[in-house]
Design brief:
alpha+beta; BirA Bifunctional Protein, domain 2; 2 domains; 29% helix; binds aspartyl-adenosine-5'-monophosphate
Length: 447
């Protein structure tokens, strides 16, 4: 391994009495008479730097987000100055020498507080800055752990992880919310989901998992929709409906549990409980869920063809109260409301062998058993006003022997949002895209 002289903030816990060399960002500075302090942030955390005597005025020259190199000695803090909130709260570094590597311009707002109290548009307008804040960056540590948990759980199911394209010849989910692309003068689409490819791979690997960007030209602004999102998908061959339900609940709960266990400190900082996961996740048909909603709220949604956001919240409250569960699986949505590849319920073909997984009031997953008969699938594509010729490669897979199969897809940002109880999905995306913005807000840029 290459020897690096640099020490990380959290290493200082084990380097008491030793000389250390740190590099990082100035978070906040403060002066108390002849002693000055600043907090230095690096990828491992934050550490207090203390400057005495003639070095103290040097600290006043530093400003928030300057990149600095610090030489000093790690010392145990006096008992009364221990900060239990910091991993390095029992140590500090007594400054010997500091050097500014990159000077930061004046901050547009206070970056030094524990919270970043900004309106969402400002939080996003200054994304390159706000992402650095120690309350914001950990959101994406949770996101990373969700992906880790998903990979681990889907591997346990025997999935091969695959990587599929995001430019497609056909629109994957139907509907109008598709972005068109000019592809060397040919028409093409950005995928609304990796659906078609994961199904095509059934005869190859039998079980696949994949992580893909997905694009939806969402025509409205909501707190749970992005124009570009990340989907975590599984597709599983030789599985019937009940097995699919078991699988999605296994992957869903393992994934969330893994992330919560990996970062209890982040959950604590966000003031959220660890997820309630009973042995058996409650399962309801959509019509049963609507019946319960009517019973508990007197809101009559029993004839609706789908669950709305309010319904999802209400049924999750019920699941928590009655089953001590943050999860609830809803099945058998009306066939007409689901994508063309969804298998009808043989007992009641108006409905379908489909499911959503709700977590803390929001749908985080949806999926279904699939139609797996070539002729039938071609028929459905026609019936839905699409052209089978646009699905040539997809249909080809069905022509040459495909197992019965089904699958599901999680929205990564929605899982992140709900695990940390964020109020808007945009906070759970590093660089969110929506109707109003690609990095910059159109309204500001186009003035
Ligand atoms: P669906 O369209 O329900 O199903 O998407 C699956 C999951 O992805 C997330 N999601 C979104 N997140 C943020 N912004 C959006 N615009 C957005 N759209 C979807 C949600 C949702 O539950 N191919 C099927 C899945 C399958 O059948 O396997 C599909 O895409 O969490």
């Amino acid at each position: 391994m290459v020897h690096v002289a640099r020490n990380l903030a959290k290493d200082c816990n084990d380097l008491i009495g030793k000389e250390v060399l740190l590099r990082g960002w100035v978070e906040r500075t403060r002066t108390h008479g002849k002693v000055a302090f600043f907090d230095l942030r690096d990828r491992s955390g934050i550490i207090q730097i203390t400057a005495h005597g003639e070095l103290a005025p040097k600290v006043a020259e530093l400003s928030s987000q300057d990149v600095v190199e610090v030489k000093g000695v790690a010392r145990a803090r006096d008992e009364k100055y221990i900060n239990p909130e910091l991993e390095t709260g029992k140590v500090e570094v007594h400054l010997e020498r500091q050097n500014v590597i990159s000077k930061a311009a004046e901050m547009p707002f206070d970056m030094g507080g524990k919270e970043l109290n900004l309106e969402l548009p400002t939080l996003l307008d200054f994304r390159s800055l706000t992402l650095r804040h120690s309350k914001i960056a950990p959101i994406f540590k949770i996101q990373e752990a969700i992906v880790e948990g998903f990979r681990k759980a889907s591997k346990e199911l025997g999935c091969t992880e695959v990587f599929t394209p995001t430019i497609s010849y056909s629109s994957t989910e139907g509907g109008a919310d598709v972005f068109r692309v000019d592809y060397y003068g040919h028409k093409a689409f950005l995928i609304q989901s990796p659906q078609l490819y994961k199904q095509i791979l059934m005869p190859v690997f039998e079980r696949v998992s994949l992580i893909s960007h997905a694009y939806r030209a969402e025509p409205s602004v909501t707190t749970r929709h992005l124009s570009e999102s990340i989907q975590l998908d599984c597709e599983l061959g030789f599985m019937e409906f009940e097995e699919l339900l078991d699988s999605l609940e296994f992957v869903g709960t393992e994934t969330i549990n893994h992330a919560a266990k990996a970062h209890p400190d982040i959950l604590k900082n966000y003031g959220v409980e660890k997820p309630a996961i009973p042995k058996k996740i409650p399962r309801l048909k959509m019509r049963e869920a609507q019946e319960i909603i009517f019973e508990i709220t007197n809101r009559d949604v029993r004839n609706e063809l789908d669950l709305g956001p309010e319904d999802e919240k209400d049924i999750c409250k019920w699941a928590l109260k009655e089953h001590n569960s943050d999860f609830v699986t809803i099945t058998h949505f009306p066939l007409a409301k689901r994508a063309f590849y969804t298998h009808p319920d043989p007992d009641n073909p108006e409905f379908s062998l489909s499911y959503d997984l709700l977590f803390r009031g929001v749908e985080i997953l949806s999926g279904s058993k699939r139609v797996d008969n070539y002729e039938k699938l071609s028929e459905i594509i026609k019936e839905r006003g699409m052209n089978p010729a646009d699905f040539e490669m997809y249909l080809q897979a069905f022509k040459y022997g495909i197992p019965p199969h089904g699958g599901f897809s999680f929205g990564l940002e929605r899982m992140t949002m709900k695990l940390l109880n964020l109020s808007n999905i945009r906070e759970a995306s590093l660089f969110p895209r929506d109707m109003e913005r690609i990095d910059q807000r159109f309204s500001v840029k186009e003035k």
